């Protein structure tokens, strides 16, 4: 680390990462964070010299380790007495079962009765609590001296103790063999000597497996921290990439929008022209289907005849006009000529109108 008040870029990053991963609780720090908060990196390095990975100070962590050691010792002692008591209770339960099925000898009865009486008196004495506590009244007004009077004779206890030791050892051996077979099912077919040898190493094997589980759990935690760091880094990179893509898309669209509009206008113009031509083609197709060559020829003959008739009518009208002019001075004869002229003119107008309508339908 460089001399000064804070880490220089890239100089103390690796040391700081090691401190954050080992001496300090897991935290996600990168070089960018150190650049934005330079004094914070120096604070973490100094803090890592006074705390452990759980966040406790070294003095408090040492006291905690000593306290846990004492707790484990007391727990071991309690477990030892608890196991012995449960084994003795199981012996008594087996005794009650055997009474129902088989007849026991007087020695067996004496052994179990002495054991049961001794166990009950001991448990009741424990319930009374320490003798020095006089603030609270004793249970049912009993004292320890009252319970000790119920203890079996000392010679019975001395006679019972060797057999109790043998049976407890036998019961514990069965439980140990059961535990061994549960841990290693292949050991079920081994001899007692081999099972006993494996039992001596079972504690070491269990401790080793437990340590492997702890190491695996620690590795898993480290991988989870690494995964969280990678996820955070990848998320930031993806967000920056998305922002860059959005900016590029916006700039590219603004530059090409006018060209795109011009192309769209040309496309619409060409499409409109194509629609007009298509409509004209449909119109011509309808006309072609409506007026065949034969129909056109017939319409041409009709038109020629109508034009000839119109021409004759016009000549007749002209002659009538000349006659009218000649006989204009006549009286009643002139009126008859006028009526005839009017009729001829009306007929001519009708034929001219028919010819015009025919020409419109033909074109």
Automatic annotation (TrEMBL):
One Pfam family it belongs to: HAUS4
GO annotation terms (biological process): centrosome cycle; spindle assembly
InterPro entries given in the database record: HAUS4 (IPR029327), HAUS4_met (IPR026214)
Gene Ontology molecular functions: microtubule minus-end binding
GO cellular component, one term: HAUS complex
PANTHER family: AUGMIN SUBUNIT 4 FAMILY MEMBER, HAUS AUGMIN-LIKE COMPLEX SUBUNIT 4
Protein name: HAUS augmin-like complex subunit 4
Lineage per the UniProt record: Eukaryota, Metazoa, Chordata, Craniata, Vertebrata
